[in-house]
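Everyone, describe these structure tokens:
***
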Amino acid sequence: MKVLIFRTLAASFLALAFAVVAIAQEGKGTVITIDGLKSVTPAEWKEEPPSNKMRYAQFVLPKVEGDAKDGEIVIFKGLGGSGKANIDRWKEQFSTNDGGKLGEKDFKITEIKVAGKPTLYLDVKGAYKYKAAPFDPNSKTVLMENSRLLAVHVDANDIYHIKFTGPAKTVEKYRDGFEKWLANFK
């Protein structure tokens, strides 16, 4: 009888311990490593398996009320090009909401540090020229008005491109967390 009580108590204790660990882990983000430096994503970023081999990691950020789509953060590792060339290419993925060419007021480029490296940071607003297969010339372009892109080109031991795209209101909701995450690589 004592053995049965002991086993029941032990099993209950283990179940409680696992429940506490599960609750403690709930709400934590994902650890991303750049050049051996790590930063934990905000908990509300929902990690997904990368949708193709070019993607190192990807996350969905739930849309805000009134937006039709969620935001998406994609991290690419090992792609080429200079910071300036990539920033220029990313700007070309946008137009004004009426389809015109972007003006100086539609984007901002700043230099920040990510993982201790000087990094170009692009903030662009307008209509996103979305292509499901961006390098396929036959892929149809869909103009997604009132969109925003926050993107960095990190020139570390590997080159990292981190792109946050989505409806402008959704991107704005998560912008502070995105910028803090970039600044927290240690």
About this structure: The chain has three helices and ten strands. Residues 3-26 have pLDDT under 50 and may be disordered.
